[in-house]
What we know:
By secondary structure, the protein is mainly α.
Amino acid sequence: MSAEGGTTGYIQHHLTNLAVCADSAKVDGVCTGFWTFHFDTLLVSGVLGLVVFGLMAMLASRATSGVPSGGQNFVEMVVGLVDQQVRDTFHGKSALVTPLAITIFVWVFVMNAMDLVPVDFLPIVAQKVSGNEHLPFKFVPTTDPNLTFAMSISVFFIMLWMNIKVKGVGGFLHEVFSAPFGAKLAPVNFIFRVVEDIAKPISLALRLFGNMYAGEMVFILIALLGLYQLPLALPWELFHILIITLQAFVFMMLTIVYMSMAAESH
């Protein structure tokens, strides 16, 4: 294999998900079709969710009104930060928005943080465990558009539910067909509303996916530099801490904004 071919193969291997599907959905041994599951994305995101929220639940059960432990103090700081953002942005009344915002921020952050793990470490572990030296394994779930779109579509349906819960079916339909140009231009209003609502989950998913995918690609390219990677990897790793935090914060804030828009009437 040429050097160019080796480099291309290395990059493609790191950007390939571990796909699982029924034998009937395989073409030349490759999974195709809608019912293809990215096992690595489901596994890593699920384990991270269970670990981080399990730890938060354990700390909450052991919380004390006295001097808090380091873990309790950190969780309280994160919850307080998110709760303040909800209070400043969401002007309706809902017991759902703050827990939803906390879940999104913490879960997206820990999934993004997997990008800080050396690019070859977990894929090699997966290969050793499976006994397959060519097993693909992407360990940054937010670099998979299937996950980011699943999260954004979930937010979209919660937003629709919030609209109907706050305004009722009649009030929601009245807003769809009468805003912003009045009932006489109902078809135009409807088209504008459809475009606006479809753009929300698309932009939400692609923003997170695009930024994390680009960051992962930079790490992969740095890993190809061999002995020269350390002077570049450390500064990029430090800068990437800001990126993963910012992307989790942006996803959370946009969710809060969408919930606030759904709870307000024109």
